[in-house]
Task: inverse folding
């Protein structure tokens, strides 16, 4: 019998060989692989902060997917201030950041070390210090506006709408011509890089973003 | 605080104060006698004594940890010391273990021999601590290596197997993690342990006094005592190889991977297998350690309760990688 070993199988095996507190509990349900285990928050001075029991669900679209993380030990208060649903699903980061990761493809171990683990470390930080170490995104639409401000350096709503519109439509402009959006002499040096960056979020997210910024313009 | 910190701290001081290391960039090769190494004696006195050993033990929870008195003398196992100076023998099961530090000779290229001696002494004493903590007995010290026994009269064989695995896992952890991190940070060549362990049953082990007059020791004559150093030589860096008899007593086999070649052929078609022991998995499964973000083990010996006062300075770099958003 010929057994196909997928990239997900391979990466789960490598993950379980490295992290002994996790186990594979289900690999077939609705095309989702489920890992369960305990994550211990140990800081850079080997101080132990806390343990969380978590569940990691990974779609078989791996590596072009974002795993869902559930906190099962209920150590995180089920309150939106802690970025967690009533069912324990953790909001690890803003959609846009996750979409970029998904587009590029993730590696399970890298995702655990740089996304999952820091989320729980940051919860410990908030519990002990009263706020998150690196701030947090505001809820819902305000968080997306904040992302455009902080990560893309975009604050002008009308300008943002034009950029998003161009990204959605995929309008082709000559790179060396005058920019029709901002009027600068060369399109390739002003708005093109920004449009290219927005395009990476995909049309669905851009349409959502457009709606958010458009409603702000009306108001 | 790690149970091995008292040893690590002395080794750190010895390395940092070593005159040969400090001057190597500025001077030609010099004899050790050109350096003042009088500080070494004071450092040596900082290695834990019985009293401070017990302070380390008090950090450990759930181990059934013994209180250290005077450690038993070498070459005279307490349960078989009646054989000393006699020609009597006794058959009794025992676990024999060998562990040593490989590539430690390279240390002579970097340090004065006084420092090398103290580094070696620190590792040996840390190993003796681990062995005694796990109810083992140090039979012989061979430079930077140890020959040890686990088990004896009125002891449970399976528990002794677990204790032997635990002690050797602790020593391997100390050299692979605590020492390696420090040496790497100071550009010191990597050193590592190799270990072998095997169990001989009652019919396979003979205890006797070997030697002449006072020049002798109470020791074992057993195929399995002889196989342990052979297994040690087959271990990978920081690896522990154990014999079939030990694996047979363990209910959980996932920690052991059979090596392709058996360690012994009896000559009648039967063979005796050797196994690589996944000691970091064993440490984790038995609650003796936790893993950090990168999977590195932090030895807790079962005492992983968070401390009352934690310094956020060391948590912040990890926490800052996250910026949460409520999106559901």
Result:
């Amino acid at each position: 019998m010929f057994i196909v070993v997928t990239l997900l199988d391979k990466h789960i095996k490598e993950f379980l060989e490295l992290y002994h507190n996790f186990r594979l509990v289900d690999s077939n349900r609705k095309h989702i692989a489920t890992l369960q285990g305990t994550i211990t928050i140990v800081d850079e001075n080997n101080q132990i902060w806390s343990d969380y029991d978590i569940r990691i669900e990974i779609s078989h679209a791996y590596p072009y997917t974002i795993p869902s993380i559930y906190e099962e030990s209920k150590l995180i208060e089920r309150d939106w201030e802690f970025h967690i649903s009533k069912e324990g699903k953790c909001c690890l980061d803003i959609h846009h950041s996750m979409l970029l990761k998904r587009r590029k493809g993730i590696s399970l171990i890298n995702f655990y070390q740089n996304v999952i683990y820091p989320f729980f470390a940051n919860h410990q930080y908030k519990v002990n210090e009263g706020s998150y170490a690196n701030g947090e995104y505001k809820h819902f639409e305000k968080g997306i506006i904040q992302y455009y401000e902080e990560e893309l350096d975009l604050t002008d709503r009308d300008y943002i709408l034009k950029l998003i519109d161009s990204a959605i439509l995929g309008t082709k402009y000559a790179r060396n011509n005058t920019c029709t959006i901002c009027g600068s002499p060369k399109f390739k040096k002003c708005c093109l890089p920004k449009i290219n960056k927005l395009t990476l979020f995909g049309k669905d997210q851009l349409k959502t973003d457009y709606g958010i910024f458009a409603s702000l313009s009306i108001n | 605080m790690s149970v091995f910190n008292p040893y690590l701290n002395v080794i750190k001081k010895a390395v940092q104060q070593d005159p040969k290391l400090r001057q190597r960039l500025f001077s030609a090769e010099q004899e050790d006698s050109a350096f003042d190494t009088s500080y070494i004696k004071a450092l040596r006195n900082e290695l834990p004594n019985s009293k401070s050993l017990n302070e380390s033990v008090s950090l450990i929870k759930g181990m059934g940890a013994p209180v250290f008195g005077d450690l038993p003398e070498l070459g005279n196992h307490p349960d078989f010391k009646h054989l000393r100076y006699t020609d009597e023998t006794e058959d009794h099961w025992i676990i024999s273990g060998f562990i040593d530090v490989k590539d430690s000779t390279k240390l002579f290229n970097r340090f004065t021999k006084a420092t090398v001696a103290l580094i070696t002494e620190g590792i040996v004493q840390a190993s003796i601590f681990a062995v005694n903590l796990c109810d083992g007995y140090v039979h012989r010290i061979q430079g930077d290596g140890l020959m040890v026994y686990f088990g004896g009269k009125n002891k449970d064989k399976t528990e002794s197997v677990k204790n032997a695995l635990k002690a050797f896992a602790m020593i391997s952890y100390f050299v692979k993690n605590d020492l390696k991190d420090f040496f790497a940070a100071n550009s010191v060549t990597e050193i590592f342990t190799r270990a072998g362990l095997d169990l001989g049953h009652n019919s396979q082990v003979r205890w006797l006094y070997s030697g002449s007059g006072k020049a002798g020791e109470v020791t074992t004559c057993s195929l399995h005592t002889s196989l342990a150093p052979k297994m040690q030589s087959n271990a990978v860096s920081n690896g522990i190889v154990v014999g079939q008899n030990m694996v047979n007593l363990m209910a959980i086999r996932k920690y052991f991977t059979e090596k392709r070649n058996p360690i012994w052929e009896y000559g009648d078609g039967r063979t005796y297998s050797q196994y690589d022991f996944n000691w970091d998995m064993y440490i984790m499964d038995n609650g003796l350690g936790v893993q950090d973000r990168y999977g590195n083990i932090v030895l807790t010996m079962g005492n992983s309760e968070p401390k009352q006062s934690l310094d956020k300075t060391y948590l912040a770099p990890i926490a800052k990688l996250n910026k949460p958003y409520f999106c559901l």
In short: The first helix of chain A runs from residue 7 to 18. Chain A has two domains: 7-129, 140-218. Chain A has a mean pLDDT of 91. Chain A touches chain B through 46 residues (CB under 8 Å).
